[in-house]
Amino acid sequence: MYNKYYLEKQAAIKAGTYVEDGNSEPTVCPSADSPAVWDEPPTVSYTVLMGQKMVLDKKQLIAEHRASMLSPRNVIEGDDGSIVYGTTVYKLTEEYGRTWYHIYLDPTRKNKLVNDFMQRLRRCKDELEDGKPVERNKSMYEKYFNVRETPKRGRIVEYNDKAIQDYIDNDSCYWVLMSTEEKDCRKALSDYRTRNDVEVSFDDVKDPLDMRRFRNHTEQTVKGKIFIIFIALILLTHLRLTIKKIPAKQRRYWTEHEFLDKVASYTRIHFEGKYKDIFTAPTANQRHVFDMLELPYRYKEVSYNQKAKQEKQVEEQVSDKQGEDKNGGNGAKL
Q: Which of 17, 172, 220, 251 is a plausible cystine mate for 246, CB 3.0–4.6 Å?
């Protein structure tokens, strides 16, 4: 089944309004039903001409509003204290009618990108001056350096300041969301991030939880698998929300999947009868995970996080008691 962009393209070709700039890979325009996001400067391969371009060029939008982006009125502060700058441009288009283009800049990512670029330039300059160029940096030498040989001073390596400034001023770490409904850039960003959480959950279902394809033969088995995956998704979501509350630097920037990978080899051996369970010796990374999540464990005959476990049990008992009191002491909990 063809998508709407292919059909629009074919209709434009038939009507004689199709424009192609010679690029081999077309970038389709977003639909009016959902916001569109560009993470990289787009290369528009075709445009259906209906009196006006369906989607404004991202580079044009950013160029027009770059100077006014860094303003306190544009600050969007996240729950973790991070800052993103955002502004909104309103346009009236024949295709979509009232349209809001929300432009964003992540200054933290931008600064890190520029700092890493500067460090790499310094290393490349040292390599050229020492006469020990590295093959993988050949494009860097050609674009960002001017090298000349002199009879008295030998090799002189100078920075190509214009090329370096062009890199600093590029559109990296800018992105644009287009919406025909949401007027506020803060709300639009929040909604888009929420949609990303939903996409992450779908990805969890398909990959880590192995629901990409059913390999069962009975309806009862399929229903049982769906229920187990549903419970696993709840636990994985709870783990993700718990990890988000831990400062990124403290958890070494690990995600919930990396947490699970770290503890995958941690094993409990259970015996029948009077013998107690035996646990494998936790590694340094596993102990770090257990400490951050306040999970009890033993290492070198010493118990850790037992106090946190007892406090949680007390809190649960108090919560259960309050639930019983609210329901007239009949034992039912809200």
A: 251
Q: Is the residue at 227 inside a domain?
A: yes
Domain check: are 299 and 215 in the same one? Answer: no
Q: How far apart are CA 128 and CA 306, in angstroms?
A: 58
Cβ-count burial 60-82 (b if 16+ within 10 Å, e if not): ebbeebeeebeeeebeeeeeeee
The answer as to whether 203 is a domain residue is no
| SS3 state at 90 | strand
* 256, 239 contact by CB (below 8 A): yes
Cβ atoms 208, 236 nearer than 8 A: yes
**pTM of the entire predicted model:** 0.50
Token pair recorded at residue 105: 């800049």
94-104, pLDDT tens digit by residue? 777 888 999 99
Handedness of CA 288, 289, 294, 296 (dihedral sign): negative
Domain membership of residue 288 as a residue range: 246-328
Map residue 246 onto helix, strand or coil.
Answer: coil
Q: At what angle do helices 161-168 and 107-129 cross, to 10 degrees?
A: 160
Q: In the sheet that 174-179 helps form, which strands lie side by side, from edge to edge? A: 36-38, 174-179, 97-105, 83-93, 75-77
End-to-end CA distance of the chain: 49
d(CA 133, CA 256): 41
In Å, how far are 176, 204, 224, 259 from 211, measured between CA atoms?
Answer: 33, 9, 12, 21
Q: Which residues are CB-contacts of 271 (< 8 A; sequence separation ≥ 6)?
A: 277, 278
